[in-house]
């Protein structure tokens, strides 16, 4: 297992949190995704080789948020 923390801009409420977490959890190989609204981060635990960080970024960006 590996963990990555993505810096996500544009999240401001629980709906944002659920949208980002949900989009990440749908990806194959993602075991958990936890958003911290105050820190503007999404911490993802995943199986290396099953999903890439670029795929995670795209999933978040497809929800309308920016990964910086």
Description:
The mean pLDDT is 97. The protein has a four-stranded antiparallel β-sheet, with helices on one face. By secondary structure, it is of the alpha+beta class. A hairpin with a 4-residue loop joins strand 2 and strand 3. The chain is globular. It starts with a strand and ends with a strand. It has one domain: Alpha-Beta Plaits.
Task: Give the tags.
four-stranded antiparallel β-sheet; 2 helices; alpha+beta; single chain; 34% strand; Alpha-Beta Plaits
Topology of helices and strands:
Elements lengths: L1 E8 L4 H12 L4 E7 L4 E6 L6 H9 L4 E2 L1
Antiparallel strand pairs: 1-3, 1-4, 2-3
Summed up, what is this model?
31% of the residues lie in helices and 34% in strands. With 68 residues, the chain is an alpha+beta fold. The mean pLDDT is 97.
List how many beta strands DSSP finds.
Answer: 4
Order of helices and strands: EHEEHE
Strand content: 25-35%
CATH class: Alpha Beta
**Secondary structural class:** alpha+beta
The stretches of 5 or more residues where confidence is low (pLDDT under 50) are none
